[in-house]
Design goal:
- The structure is a homodimer.
- By secondary structure, chain A is an alpha+beta fold.
- The first copy, chain A, has two domains: about 60 residues, Winged helix-like DNA-binding domain superfamily/Winged helix DNA-binding domain (Arc Repressor Mutant, subunit A); about 120 residues, Umud Fragment, subunit A (Ribbon), CATH 2.10.109.10.
- Chain A is about 20% helix and about 30% strand.
- Chain A contains three helices and eleven strands.
- Chain A has a nine-stranded mixed sheet, with no helix packed on it. Chain A has a two-stranded antiparallel sheet with strand order 1-2.
- In chain A, a hairpin with an 8-residue loop joins strand 9 and strand 10.
- In chain A, helix 2 packs across helix 3.
- The longest helix of chain A is centred in the N-terminal third of the chain and has 17 residues.
- Strand 11 of chain A pairs antiparallel with strand 11 of chain B.
- The structure holds a DNA duplex.
DNA sequence: TCGTTAACTGTATAAAAATACAGTTAACGG
DNA sequence: CCGTTAACTGTATTTTTATACAGTTAACGA
């Protein structure tokens, strides 16, 4: 996400605060008054800039049509990450399917939801299409299920580490464990699975 | 706090939902459109009533000037139902484990969460200890997973009906289908499964 | 049977809000 | 030195939005 100038930061903070205290976003005129602008257009162009940089969304033709981008606001739910392309960061825009109104407290500190691909964890009750609640904690204990990246591919497996030898274990006899020697191969932990969500998908 | 009429409840819920999804409160016109009123005044007077009863505050002269009263804001979430004793209604106090902050809209109109016992639906990715989001709709289609009560026992199975013959199918070869002839046996549908939630349980 | 309330229809209108267009000034980078 | 961008001023003009006023219908309790 593109950096904000100090002034922009100031304005963005104020908008956030305003939503939190009044329950709805401010108008251009309110922004103008609060910052002492002599023109509503000062507010307008600031909003446009914040929108362009991805910090909020403007719904045009709508009074107070300001929606904070997820992650910047309070709760707003968790981002849903779909197919992650090789080499892409996991929260890349291209991989984002949207947002779901999930309380972060429902799961133990989940940071995002990951759409499951494939059946390699079937016997752990994790099916294709399920959403995994993932916390970005990178200190898995043996036996926990992790989201890891090996050879630029994102995979969900059960974590077993013995010294520099890591086994990423599937839970489906049709799949083979992925063995990684930390001395010679790269492995990045994207997070630890802390919950599962399935909606519809039952027929 | 004064009680709301069913219609008022409906409208209040919708407003809450709207704020959650769009990030700002609705206008009178939006309420009008959504409920099919032919007059904006219908929306206006509903809002006044909700304000009078203390469920929200109206800021006059302000576009979208609706603020939810504290406490009504979040939604208490859904009740978690644990072991249901034979003969007890499913939402009996004795069976209640508590509440979880789950947005009703996350699942398609879930009314409560049911703690899964046993492994009879294992191959559908439903494991012991999971929470099923259940809607109290009693019109399952074939292939859907239902919460039913046979011989006073609550069970979760896949629904197949052919005339007066109902098969409640497990998804685990270790279990047998429950066959019910509606002419001779009683069967009560408690609801349809619309989602699944698993928290922790991975170690 | 009558007053009251919920739940609306129908019509207007003033105020609030978004937003376009045309400038200005100062800082920064090449 | 020049183009670009941030950060504004100033003015106008639609749209949105809130909200008043005048009714109607059906249900409910006294």
């Amino acid at each position: 996400m593109e950096e904000l100038s100090p002034r922009q930061k100031e304005i963005f903070q104020w908008i956030r605060e305003r939503i939190a205290t009044t329950g709805f976003p401010p108008t251009r005129a309110e922004l103008q008054a609060s910052f002492g602008f002599r023109s509503p257009n000062a507010a307008e162009s600031h909003l446009r800039t914040l929108a362009r940089k991805g910090y909020l969304f403007l719904q045009e033709g709508t009074a107070r049509g300001i929606r904070l981008a997820a992650g910047t606001g309070e709760a707003a739910g968790l981002p849903v990450v779909g197919r992650v392309a090789a080499g892409q960061p996991i929260l890349a825009e291209t991989a984002m399917e949207g947002f779901l109104p999930v309380d972060r407290e429902l799961f133990a500190g989940a940071d995002f939801l990951l759409r499951v691909q494939g059946m390699s964890m079937r016997d752990a009750g994790i099916l294709e299409g399920d959403l995994l609640a993932v916390s970005r904690r990178k200190d898995p204990r043996n036996g926990q299920i992790v989201v890891a990246r090996v050879d630029n591919e994102v995979t969900v497996k059960r974590w077993h580490q013995d010294g520099h030898q890591v086994s990423l274990m599937p839970e489906n006899p049709d799949f083979r464990p992925i063995m990684v020697d930390l001395r010679t191969q790269s492995l990045e932990i994207e997070g630890t699975v802390v919950g599962l969500l399935r909606t519809g998908g039952f027929l």
